[in-house]
From TrEMBL:
Organism encoding this protein: Thiohalospira halophila DSM 15071
PANTHER family according to UniProt: UDP-GLUCOSE 6-DEHYDROGENASE TUAD (PTHR43750:SF3)
Residue ranges occupied by any UDP-glucose/GDP-mannose dehydrogenase C-terminal domain in the UniProt entry: 320-424
Annotated metabolic or biological route of this protein: Nucleotide-sugar biosynthesis; UDP-alpha-D-glucuronate biosynthesis; UDP-alpha-D-glucuronate from UDP-alpha-D-glucose: step 1/1
Name the record gives this protein: UDP-glucose 6-dehydrogenase
Described function: Catalyzes the conversion of UDP-glucose into UDP-glucuronate, one of the precursors of teichuronic acid.
Record-stated family: Belongs to the UDP-glucose/GDP-mannose dehydrogenase family.
Amino acid sequence: MNVTIFGSGYVGLVTGTCLAEMGNDVVCVDVDQRKIEMLERGEIPIYEPGLESMVHENTAAGRLRFTTDIADGVAHGLFQFIAVGTPPDEDGSADLQYVLAVARSVGEHMDDYKVIIDKSTVPVGTADRVREAVSETLTRRGAELEFDVVSNPEFLKEGAAIDDFMKPDRVIVGTDNPRTTELLRALYAPFNRNHDRLIAMDIRSAELTKYAANAMLATKISFMNELSNLADRLGADIEAVRNGIGSDPRIGYSFIYPGAGYGGSCFPKDVKALERTARDVGYEAELLSAVEAVNDRQKSVLFNKLHAHFGGALAGRTIALWGLAFKPNTDDMREAPARVLMESLWQAGARVRAFDPEAMEETHRIYGERDDLALVEGPEAALEGADALVVITEWHPFRSPDFALVKERLKQPVVFDGRNIYDPAYMAGQGFTYYAIGRPP
Ligand code: NAD
Ligand code: UGA
């Protein structure tokens, strides 16, 4: 089937590549010329495990190509996916300008029936606005053409995006027309394992399902972070508590890891956007406000622990930082807890020596050259002359370091573990002063 994807970011590129992998003929359109030129050269603008080889195979097979030519893109696909960004506006609501720009482009260039699919995360009611934008453009052209608008939110996680897309837990399809449900069912049929994964519903429920999923996951994390702060004050171990509650299948083990706060391009913005949607319809979503407030506070927990350890005397100190990306297996720094920590340390007059396996370039792009930030070649180099080590992203290579070397390189054997990846008793045995999240020393 012919598929066009607008937006070649995390979601668009993964969606396009995985649909091509299943034999579809896919064109990815982006307005960012630099990005398209990179993709045409076979370079992948983001770090996502497994993506590069899959892009290469599918472009070589002639099933996947990239363009900035919007008219070409619209002409190509029966399916027109909208996978552009929906960043937060100043008031927290999702900025729909890119989504509506694509809708107008489709209206401008289409000359036969199209299925327009919202894959971006968009507030309830957006499909109606997309429909209006397409209709208005068609009317202006004096064209009478049929089209349908579908809500098909995406649930992939960065770092595991290919696997998530190829083996989805579910494919949500919100339509008001059974014909489109069947078209989408055919497109997604190759992604069914064992049973039909497609869940069809009305459009508004599909739009809300996406926010509900992210808000629920963010709530689980903030709940555990709240409890970790309580555990800290009560002398309990949050990791024991986590095991204790996760064993109840009604609670489950996933997304109950306490840490330095959730980051990334989605949880923070989607919780805010849902809060905003609630307010727009006269409802104060108190739980969502609390989830957000707890997360904001959690991003300062490591700094507060450092501050307390050094008796407030952080000026002139050097802190080694392992991890910069908002989570492992990505180079994405959007809303990363490491940013809040570094900025607080700089404000307090401390210097940072940091290493991340993938996010060094992105960190440099964001902060540029500065005297109080050294982006170093490897985890050991970060320790050189540092007063303490902070681990903020749980990349595999940080999980089992040579602790003798860590101790030797640090000026003082102090470790702050923002992801609870080390064992407190072992760390004490190795002679470290060890701080974790919600665990007694
Ligand atoms: P992104 O910023 O990585 O990519 C968006 C791309 O859209 C950019 O390359 C941009 O140049 C392009 N674009 C903007 N306007 C365009 C236009 N008019 N025509 C063509 N291209 C255009 O964004 P992303 O992370 O892929 O997220 C896209 C959407 O998917 C968001 O709504 C996000 O909330 C949602 N989402 C993201 C993830 C994730 O893990 N990143 C997961 C699920 C859902
Ligand atoms: C998240 C969702 O998991 C995806 O299903 C969704 O499609 C996506 O948002 C989106 O809408 O964009 P992502 O942001 O890539 O995916 O990453 P997650 O693995 O969910 O992690 C988000 C943040 O939560 C990270 O900072 C991570 O460190 C933190 N986290 C996660 C915890 O602190 N504890 C946990 O137990 C799990």
